[in-house]
Amino acid sequence: MADVARVGASVTVRDAVPEGWDALLAADPSATPAHRPLLWEAFAAALPGFSWRVIAVHEQGALLGGAPVMRTQRGVWRELHALPWMLPAAPIAQPGRIAQVDDRVAHAFAALAAEWRVCGGTWSLYRPEGPAPDAAAFAGVPGGVRMVETAVLSLAGGLAARRAGLARKQRQALDHAIARPFVFAEEPDALEEAYALHLAQSQGWGGHRPLPLELSRRLLAARDASGPLARLFTLRTPAGLASATLVLDGAHESFLWWAGTHPSGRRSGAFLRLVWEIATWAEGQGRRRVNLGASLGLPWVAAFKQSLGAEGVSHAVRVLDARHAPAPLRWLAGRRRDRMAGDA
């Protein structure tokens, strides 16, 4: 498609970052690391069939807001995401203009789904601060709604106050993990070692497909004037690597994307300590919150996040259907949906 495609009087879809986007990221506290162009560029470079666009809303030449989208294609199967793996990229906007931006971005997203004849996709409407996206604005996006709960550790008021508010047993578990002789560090060169831990641990997660190592390598290498896009944090003992996690970082939020912990580390509270160290680092960097991600129906994961004082933020995910796809692909999408329903 062309560099800029107009889908409304004030809305364009472009394959270049619009002027003013960096200022928008700094101004909107709901901006997440997924709104950083470095992330979209890493996806397109590392993953065959991935390409990104930005839906931009302007008024009198000034950027009011917008959202990134990612088209994925494997053969004839196309999907539209904002963004893949439910990375949160709800529209961001200038102060006081979010409702207007939501409405225009949603219409543009629906138009792209029809134009590209997609077979599916997702759009996470996680917005950690400010008004929640208006359901009516997104009703025209083809598909249904799935509610997801994301665990968010707010850094407002400081971690000391957050620790003081923990239940006694939770505070004792945290203090026990802090007292252990772990060594916390940022180690981008430990990627292969950390990824091996992640692969070993995720073998027991049903249906989980690990992210390609090359993608993580590109994420860690990506940086701009705001700093690195991703950071690899580790926790070590004299015996070796106990736990590690890849963190996507932005001006307002640090997002824990994937992690791995050695079996011995799971018994000694290594991941608890690692997350607390990351939260301490994020607080020192002026971040507003740490996003621990969704628990995806795993009660023990949700309980762990609550033990840190994280709060569940319930938000909608639009799940696109195949109504605009060619007939054979609509049939195939229906078969896939029926099979997933049978497995549930």
Overview features:
single chain, 344 residues, alpha+beta, 14-stranded mixed sheet, 11 helices, globular
Q: What letter string, H or E per element, gives the SSE order?
A: EEHHEEEEHEEHHEHHEEEEEHHEHEH
Helical/strand content category? alpha+beta
Average pLDDT confidence is: 89
Overall 3D form:
globular
Instruction: Give the strand tally.
Output: 16
Give the terminus-to-terminus CA distance.
38 Å
Please describe the biggest sheet, giving its number of strands, its sense, and whether it closes into a barrel.
14 strands, mixed
Number of DSSP helices? 11
Helix content: 25-40%
How large is the radius of gyration?
A: 20 Å
Indicate the topology:
Blueprint: E1 4-6, E2 11-14, H1 21-27, H2 37-46, E3 50-59, E4 62-74, E5 77-82, E6 92-93, H3 98-115, E7 120-124, E8 143-154, H4 159-164, H5 168-179, E9 183-186, H6 191-202, H7 213-221, E10 223-224, E11 227-228, E12 230-237, E13 240-249, E14 253-261, H8 263-267, H9 270-284, E15 289-294, H10 299-307, E16 311-320, H11 327-343
Parallel strand pairs: 5-7, 14-15
Antiparallel strand pairs: 1-2, 2-3, 3-4, 4-5, 4-6, 7-16, 8-15, 8-16, 9-12, 10-11, 12-13, 13-14
